Amino acid sequence: MPKPWFDKGLQFKCTQCGNCCRTHDQYAYVYLAEGDVAALSEHLGLDRAAFLARHCQEDEGWITLRIDEPACPFLNEENGCEVYEARPKQCRSWPFWEENLDRATWEGPVAKCCPGVGEGPLIPAEEVLRIARDTERWYEGS
Ligand code: SF4
Ligand code: SF4
After folding, report:
1. CB–CB of 123/129 below 8 Å?
2. pTM score of the predicted model
3. Ligand 1 in contact with 109 (CB < 6 A)?
4. Nearby residues of 74 by Cβ (< 8 Å), 6 or more positions away
5. pLDDT, tens digit, for every residue of 64-105?
6. Is 120's C-beta closer than 6 angstroms to any atom of ligand 1?
7. Cα 109 to Cα 27: distance, rounded to the nearest angstrom
8. For every one of its 142 residues, what pLDDT tens digit does the chain have, with 9 covering 90 and above?
């Protein structure tokens, strides 16, 4: 396999600005795999049907969190996540998603949305790719 453009790793450290929990053009959806639905329902003390009715919508066959402009309803005033322990895989793995890892996307819209890009330690390429692959598999398995 050819080496990725970031073979020395990608610099990233979350500044906890909450920006990725707000709507930004195409970054307006949090897709939920079945495991996410189960974890969030349990965390909130709701059964599946009640959780789906209260917090979700459907987008082209996918269940997504209902994100009301301008932010996820679970984002609190201190930029913290109210469901942090049960937050969806998509939130856990940002910004290391496969579709973010080509150079133009990483240095363009991803860096624009996320001030943590280019900060902090270098995350090794193997770790970045492992997170991205693991996230893809999570959604494929749902
Ligand atoms: S946008 Fe980036 S720096 Fe801000 S909370 Fe999200 S991951 Fe952290
Ligand atoms: S679930 Fe939590 S981490 Fe995910 S978008 Fe909402 S507030 Fe952010």
Report:
1. no
2. 0.91
3. no
4. 21, 65, 81, 82, 83, 87
5. 999 877 889 999 999 999 999 999 999 999 999 999 999 999
6. no
7. 10
8. 678 999 999 999 999 999 999 987 666 789 999 999 999 999 999 999 999 999 999 988 899 999 877 889 999 999 999 999 999 999 999 999 999 999 999 999 999 999 999 999 999 999 999 999 999 998 887 6
| Residue nearest to ligand 1 atom 7, measured at CA | 14
Backbone φ and ψ of 22, nearest 5°: -110, 160
**32 Cβ inside 6 Å of ligand 2:** no
Q: Is 39 in the pocket of ligand 2 (CB under 6 A)?
A: no
Query: What distances in angstroms separate CA 28 from CA 2, 65, 71, one per listed residue?
Result: 32, 10, 9
Top mutation candidate among 11, 12, 13, 20 for ligand 1, by most atoms within 8 Å of CB: 20
Closest residue to atom 2 of ligand 1, CA basis: 114
Query: Smallest Cα–Cα separation from 136: which of 108, 101, 112, 85?
Result: 101
Tell me if 81 CB under 6 Å of ligand 2: yes
